[in-house]
Amino acid sequence: MVMKNKIGVMEGRLLPKYQGRYQAHPIGYWQNEFSVAKNLGLDCIEFILDYNDVEQNPLLKDSGIDELQAIIDKTGVAVYTVCADYFMEAPLHSVDSAVADQSQKVMLKLLENSAKLGITDVIIPCIDQSSLETKEAVDRFIEQITKIIPKIEKQNINLSLETDLPPKSFIQLLDRLNSKNITVNYDIGNSAALGFDSDKELEAYGDRITDIHIKDRVLGGGPVTLGEGNANFAKFFNKLKEFDYQGPFIMQAYRDDEGVEIFKKQLDWIGMYLN
Predict the structure, then answer these.
(1) CB atoms near residue 17 (< 10 Å)
(2) Number of domains observed in the structure of the chain
(3) Which of 143, 168, 181, 201 fits 152 for a cystine, CB–CB 3.0-4.6 Å?
(4) Is residue 117 part of a domain?
(5) In this predicted structure, what is the pLDDT of residue 5?
(6) Residue 230 belongs to a domain
(7) CATH number at residue 30
């Protein structure tokens, strides 16, 4: 692997859990993670936009953007990508038009502020409650995303989709959206849990992946420490070499209540593939 890729971490993984939640934007102490990431030699943090207390997230406040930029400048740890978990709880393609309209407003504000920070990718999770499991859901999603494609193309920000769709259905979705700025977030662990073949996935859309989450899960089950689940890392990284992947590798690996020590062990473990 050519060492041009950035190595980063999902926000909160290097800090004690926020309100006992597995993945969340840690309100009140998110600033502390940048110095920890710097000390670990990481390049970036993938920020989280939660549904809960979204108004307190710096990504949606002008003062927050200024504070975030100051910390980035001070530590040298960048924010290139945003994991917009907000849209799992309030899907853009919700059947409730009030929810969908509010989510569209949140998206537009997020894109406006992301442009100020030079963010390259906003990851839209279409999994769990926001899964695109029906034709109707897909149609509603395409209708909503199509409205903002001119904006992301002008700003050159990718909407990187994370879905539970099999390769054929996913590529059909990408083709229908038909924009260079609609790309793929690839989650190694989630694909393993769904029983997908990473070779077939990469053959379908490997050239459209702009963000990779490093995680391990058991087939049909939850997260485990790297190397203990069903993800075939050797197979995935070997196939990835066929593509000119230039995005970040984001550690979204298994965490405990504290975060740092278990993170260090897994960062060391994955190093044989990232190097």
Answers:
(1) 17
(2) 1
(3) 181
(4) yes
(5) 87
(6) yes
(7) 3.20.20.150
pTM above 0.85, yes or no: yes
CB 116, CB 64: distance < 8 Å: no
Contact 242, 202 (CB under 8 A): yes
Q: From CA 131, how far away is CA 88, in angstroms rounded?
A: 8
Between CA 242 and CA 13 the distance in angstroms is 30
Identify the CA nearest to 110 among candidates 140, 65, 52, 63.
65
Spatial separation of the C-alpha atoms in residues 158 and 177, rounded to whole Å: 13
Residue 108 resides in a domain: yes
The alpha carbons of the chain give a radius of gyration, in whole angstroms, of 18
- pLDDT for res 1: 31
Structural domain boundaries, residue 73: 7-274
What pLDDT does residue 3 have?
A: 40
Locate 120 and state its tokens: 């390259």
Given a contact cutoff of 8 angstroms between Cβ atoms, the answer to whether 2 and 245 are in contact is no
In the structure encoding, which two tokens stand for residue 9, read together? 């971490």
**2 falls within a domain:** no
**DSSP-derived secondary structure for 33-76:** HHHHHHHTT--EEEEE--STTGGG-GGG-HHHHHHHHHHHHHH-
